[in-house]
Specification:
It comes from Sinocyclocheilus rhinocerous. The chain is an alpha/beta fold. The protein is about 40% helix and about 15% strand. It has 9 helices and 11 strands.
């Protein structure tokens, strides 16, 4: 039987429900576990973590919206991830981790052999956390790194922190999707990110929705996609003070580039090769899947 999914949102979970979840994890019958926004006791959270540690089938773990609410829970999750080898996607969006929480998780996240997608949006992170996250974006293929990173709504990160991230993104050998929406970035940081995007050989999606940008930033991105080769396919600029005309120009140029790449791929006969395709569909619904391209 193929592993299935357990998805529960915003409920108070009983001990019996937790037992069923843990039994399924230990039986390797769960590929996706989502308990986003759920209430469970500290004891039951520890039981779930032990189940995660023992599971060989679990690929996606969603603990969004405050499930990891204390440093003790963060430590338990770190211990679980140190033992686990199968989790590819981890969602912690809306967890009050702070930099101390990232320090606690860093060893487990950095050393995990399968983790490729990480959501740390709205986790009250600062510059120290970003410094640690940059270590998960290795500049060469010597070790595995993140392919998708979400850092939405972490306003405590300073200009220096975002600059450090931009440098890491520019040199990352694997990152394909970066979500920075709803951070107060402004045009200066956006300019740094434009340089990072133009240097990156892998970044395909950049989400800058609601980040305080103006036409100045949009013009920099327009010049970039118009005059320099880039892997970028999607640039989200909604909810910024940017004219619809500029947004449309950028979108059109990115679309043209994607069409040309598709034609080149067909000409080279790539239709028979297997590639890893990244698919995103909103908060807590992101996954990497092997597909025949």
């Amino acid at each position: 039987m193929l592993p299935g999914s357990i998805q529960i949102t915003g409920e108070a979970l009983s001990g019996a429900e937790i037992k069923d979840i843990c039994d399924s994890l230990k039986e390797n019958s769960v590929r996706l576990l989502s308990v986003r926004g759920c209430q469970l006791s500290d004891r039951d959270f520890g039981r779930v973590c032990r189940g995660v540690a023992e599971s060989h089938s679990l690929a996606q773990l969603n603990l969004n919206l405050g499930v990891v609410s204390t440093i003790d829970r963060t430590k338990q999750l770190a211990d679980a991830l140190k033992a686990n080898r199968s989790v590819q996607t981890l969602f912690l969006h809306g967890s009050p981790l702070l930099d101390a929480g990232l320090v606690t998780l860093n060893g487990a996240l950095s050393a995990h052999p399968s983790l490729v997608s990480l959501d740390l949006g709205d986790c009250m992170l600062g510059d120290e956390a970003v410094r640690l996250i940059c270590g998960m974006l290795p500049p060469d293929g010597a070790k595995s790194g993140l392919k998708e990173l979400t850092l939405s709504a972490n306003p405590a990160v300073s200009t220096q922190g975002w600059a450090r991230l931009a440098i890491a993104v520019a040199h990352s050998s694997q990152l394909r999707v970066l979500n920075l929406d709803y951070n107060p970035l402004g045009d200066h940081i956006a300019g740094m990110l434009a340089v990072a995007v133009s240097s990156s050989r892998t970044l395909e999606v950049l989400d800058l929705e609601g980040t305080g940008l103006t036409n100045q930033s949009a013009q920099v991105f327009l010049d970039m996609v118009e005059n320099y080769p880039t892997s970028l396919r999607v640039l989200v600029l909604a909810e910024n003070d940017i004219s619809p005309e500029l947004q449309q120009q950028i979108s059109d140029l990115l679309s043209e580039g994607e069409e040309e790449e598709d034609k080149d791929g067909e000409a080279r006969g790539n239709s028979s090769s297997s590639q890893m395709v990244l698919m995103t569909s909103g908060l807590g619904e992101s996954f990497l899947a092997e597909t025949e391209m």
